[in-house]
Design goal:
Chains A, B: One of its GO terms (cellular component) is thylakoid membrane. Chains A, B: This is Fluorescence recovery protein. Chains A, B: InterPro entries: Fluoresc_Recovery_Reg, FRP. Chains A, B: It comes from Brunnivagina elsteri CCALA 953. The structure is a homodimer. By secondary structure, chain A is an all-alpha fold. The first copy, chain A, has one domain. The first copy, chain A, is about 70% helix and about 0% strand. Chain A is built from five helices and no strands. The two termini of chain A are about 20 Å apart.
């Protein structure tokens, strides 16, 4: 499959790593704030188990999402752009072809 | 097994229900406070997953612990006394035999 075989130059690797880390930090920071907000609003047992369910889902989600293998990066970035953890402009430095693929996938 | 066959009079049932509910409310209240404290102290991702692990364990623990079947109540109360969610004096009204069993089991 073409996307999986895409090669990454040294400069692209740097751009990718920085964008990846930035998105990750953003999402984690936002998630921690949300968890603290939910915890602060716990008034009954169901709220606590609901926080537990939320954490279970997010943990699974984050563990799967941030996969820094080059063969997956196009898809990873498309998802991060779609979910607004990353702006497409933060990926400037990648080839036009990669940017177009990321943008197209992010709109699916 | 003798303990399992123990019968509960109407008065004993009332004492048991009240003590059971009281211990449950105490433990849940304490747990909610602890979860809020842990959430408030989240500074990095590991703290959040550690809170998730804690909630997983507690949910499993609480689901299993509060079993209001009369055939299990002696064991349930023994555990609650052992864990200090209940004082043996709050079970006054049960037969001396039951109290002695609960106390003995709570010290194991």
């Amino acid at each position: 499959m073409q996307v999986i075989d895409t090669e990454w130059s040294k400069i692209e690797q740097e751009v990718a790593k920085e964008a990846f880390d930035r998105a990750y930090k953003r999402e984690i920071k936002s998630l921690m704030a949300l968890v603290q907000e939910k915890a602060g609003a716990i008034a009954q047992l169901d709220d606590m188990w609901s926080l537990h369910d939320f954490l279970s889902a997010k943990r699974h989600d984050i563990d799967g999402k941030y996969d820094y293998r080059y063969s997956f990066l196009i898809f990873v970035f498309a998802r991060l752009v779609k979910e607004e953890w990353l702006d497409i402009n933060e990926l400037q430095g990648l080839t036009k072809e990669k940017l177009a693929k990321i943008l197209a996938l992010s709109r699916m």
